[in-house]
Amino acid sequence: MAAAAPAAYDQTVETFPSIVIGADGVYPQGPFAEAQAQFLEPDAESINFLRDNIANANMGVVAHYYMDVELQGVLTAVKKQMDPSNPRVEIADSLKMGDDAVKMCQDGATAIACLGVDFMSESVATIMKRNGFGHVPVYRATAKAIGCSLAESAERDSYRAWLEKGRANYAYPLHVVYINTSLETKAVSSSVVPTITCTSSNVMATILQASVELPEVKIMYGPDTYMGENLVTMFTSILNAEWSDERIRRDLHPDHDRASLRKLRDNIDVYPSGNCVVHHMFGNEVVKTVKDNYEDAYVTAHLEVPGEMFEIAMDKSLDGKGVVGSTSDILTFITKKVQEAVSDNLPTTRRLQFVLGTEAGMVTSIVKSLQDIMKDAEAGLHGVEAEIIFPVSSEAVMGVDDSDLGVVPGVAGGEGCSTAGGCATCPFMKMNDLDALNDIAEMMIEDQNDIRLKDHLPPNRLYGKTIGGVDAIELGSEPIMYMRHFMQNKTMDGELMQKIKANAC
What we know:
This protein has helices spanning about 30-35, 45-55, 70-80, 95-105, 120-130, 150-155, 155-170, 185-190, 205-215, 225-240, 245-250, 260-265, 275-280, 285-295, 305-315, 325-345, 365-375, 435-445, 470-490, 495-500; strands spanning about 20, 25-30, 60-65, 90, 110-115, 140, 175-180, 195-200, 220, 270, 300, 320-325, 350-355, 385-390, 400, 405, 465, 470. By secondary structure, it is of the alpha/beta class. Helix 2 crosses helix 3 (about 70-80) and helix 10 (about 225-240) packs antiparallel against helix 12. The longest helix is centred in the middle third of the chain and has 18 residues, at about 325-345. The N and C termini lie far apart (about 65 Å).
């Protein structure tokens, strides 16, 4: 059970808030961490109410890792009570949400609630349609638009101008667009230059394979500037670390070596003006605190965080002390390190520290995974604690008068963001909440044709539109299908490769 910190916590730039997970419980350290830990163990009434609503509405729920802790806590508890062979609740990254929704439809769900931002509901609906479930409605938690600073950066005129410039100047351009963009962005991009989507977990494999099949390919990566620059940094770090051709073939790609990797790195063109409001604010103050006071900690970093924070995690990853990648990569890394420590079964208590270089919503899945590991081990004998550290700047928790109390900012205040660096949660994701999800379920139970449900459908700005004589929705889904082909076959789609080569003609 989550317990209060033993004493009032004075958050300074020298110490970040954190959650300690041990065999005997979960202990938050500091106001921000207390806010995250409050709902790790939700009350039974909330769990049972949502479980019954999901069952009675015959719907499935797919949610992103970045949901608020109350919603994630209840969803996690509801999933535990479900049949493992037919779960109607899944928490995942943006790509797997679509796959999970398809599985739920195959198992009989007649509607899907998608908890994320608007482009996620668009993507889920597109993947469902491509798998024969276009008749199954996808509902957002709110009728309001749920935007995304990163996705919106690809909808500017400057983004199209960048694509047009690439088409004109590069013989073999391939636009690798982050899946966290709107269907409209994907459609417009496809009409300008050959385009494939990627996730943070497969972007590296995508560009490595594309450059193997066409060594002269020019990778145009967008819109996430930090992620693109970090990919270049990652390749540079590997080359500077003097990885041998053999190691590159073993650890990166069997058909690459130092020369081909250098050529690929030099052939990456990164869009210069796109970022996520959450990851953007892991700034200088945060980096300084990590360097000065968490030298022995494991450091994790999402591919979207700013360069200096990423470089710390990248350097540590080369020695097994960190990880850079997707939310799933971060979860896997932390789980593996704790499992290894538990398996050692040493007599002394050890606390493994992990700096969480991504959105704080990840902590719900992390705590659940680590508690499962510790539960499976002999209670108390493994002597392992894990501390999940939130790299939030001191300004993220403001003092009240001269007391020791603190106020954790809400959505309107940026959810833990500060201009000094350190952004813990996404204000857009937090537009999804438990009450809103229950409202959707209850509307469906009462009347599946309730006119109010139409306001919760994904935005469909492309309906009935064509681009260059091609149906815009089909054009927008094309890059997703190219990515799915790559994931299933480990090769680029032949149609995509022909389009890239045709650009040179």
